[in-house]
């Protein structure tokens, strides 16, 4: 392939009426070509007696697990926050968190539309930034009287461990590494306000055991106004949890303690952990 990685297409069938897991063929191919190969996720899982074409690609170097914790604003039945995480065959892990303007059903519908469109464009092969620009244009054309949605995107390359961040009106994102936390902030506008939007983009190297933590505005707004990021860093460091969902729940519980366990806005904590395979 152009990036130097190997890809194989093979027509395979089994003999003697057996069904063989495609993973066994991938293991044999790995021995032959000297690197770990896996079947693409759109390939069939079994090899039977009929010739079928299977596709094999180099396995990624990292794996990702994710989880979310969320709570709806008091007296609202629906959260205005939506998120999406998906793994692409290119070895890219795409995660997105969107916060619709206001709260309730309308905010939910707006952020849900943003997330759904982003997923469709990414699945079609567009980059995260191009997909976000196309979604922004669609929202502007709808002309919803100044309504907008924030969008927080991270695309992780699971071969290299590089994380590409794109933010439009989104709250600060945090990276936890051992006893250290880094903040990635943004001052850009949300989607749907102006036709030509300037996204703030950042690239960070992610390492084995890192946690990526995305939050919506409602989470940070519950913390002391003059030191929201500093308090959030302290909360992340003090929260124990080896699983992303467990870590997200612990963070949300500690944040709620600052607002007498009342949610004055929709709150969502989306956590992804990256580990060496």
Oligomer: single chain
Shape designation: globular
Tell me the β content. Answer: 25-35%
Measured on Cα atoms, how large is the radius of gyration?
Answer: 21 Å
Overall mean pLDDT: 88
**In which range does the helix fraction lie?**
25-40%
Q: Structural class from helices and strands?
A: alpha+beta
Element-by-element helix/strand order: EEHEEEEEEHHEEEEEEHHHE
Number of strands: 15
Measured between the Cα atoms of the first and last residue, the distance is 22 Å
Quick recap of the structure?
With 277 residues, this protein is an alpha+beta fold.
Describe the structure.
The protein is an alpha+beta fold. The protein is 27% helix and 34% strand. It is built from 6 helices and 15 strands. It has a 5-stranded antiparallel β-sheet with strand order 6-15-14-11-12. The protein has a 5-stranded antiparallel β-sheet with strand order 7-8-9-10-13, covered by helices on one side. The longest helix has 20 residues, at 104-123. The two termini are 22 Å apart.
